[in-house]
Amino acid sequence: MSRVADKCLSGVVHVLTALSLVKREKTGEGKPKLEVTVHAATGQGSFGPGKYMATMKLGQTKFRTGLKKADSLVWNESAEFPSWSSDDKQDVVLKIRKAKKCTERTVGTVTINVKEALETNLHLSVRRRYLVTPSDKQRKCRVFLEVSVTVDEGSKGETAGENELDKPASLDESTKPKSAQAVAPPTEIDPRCSEQISAISTTYAELIAKQFSSAELLAYVNGLRDKLSVAAPHVLDNVVIKNIAANVPDATQYNLPELVGQSLEGLGKILDVVQRLSQEEDGRLHFIRKWYVDEVCRQAMEAAPEVLEGG
């Protein structure tokens, strides 16, 4: 893309972003707002080289992220929809749009039922993957958009359209075991709340440990794949391995909120989420160990057993 085209494109994005922010300033403050965060696009295949943005629309309110290159579609940008109300039945529509010179076009769409998403996540900030429907039905790709939907009582974090983005944690950092939140509650805390806090912290620590085990297994199998790419590259073209690799579930990242000060009902919701995520990680860990690692090792043993030496 030429410098002139880049400047033209940047100008268009700047103007549209400014209009979004002006529209936001005119809305009322002090009431719960729907917050939608688009984190990243991941999966098998892509929409081709170029620069991409994500747009988020609810009703007549629309926001857009900054531009990212095709090889690094990580945005981590949020948009607030103050006009949303709890009885609103509208869907939030997210689109991945490709920018080219002074034009842009939609390459994929995700539609999220807000009410359903909030109920599934118990109104907590849980990052989930949604399958992108490509605009070009002939394109062979399986792309997911990672999105979290929650209700925010106050403005915090970054708004879509700003230039400075939080640097996303690497896979290694995000999957390392983290200390469970300190849970030494003051003596005046309701005993039932103390029990909930203790249960949450224990389950959350187990969840992080399982995710770390999954990450270690994936690192091991990826190391084997690297060796096989040299010793027996035809193994990596095996249809079974390709299908298994494409269907390995992603870990759901969840940041445990401050527990002390939560109501008993709020702690119950957090415990439900952590328990559900822990169960999901059990299934993910089983899939990686039983299917992915075992199949790659079996194929390696037949084609190039030397790659298994030394682990």
Automatic annotation (TrEMBL):
Residues 164-176 have a biased composition (Basic and acidic residues). One of its GO terms (biological process) is positive regulation of transcription of Notch receptor target. Coiled coil: none annotated. Residues 155-190 are annotated as: Disordered. It comes from the Eukaryota. GO terms for molecular function: transcription coactivator activity. Gene3D superfamilies: C2 domain. This is Uncharacterized protein LOC109478744. It comes from Branchiostoma belcheri. The gene is LOC109478744.
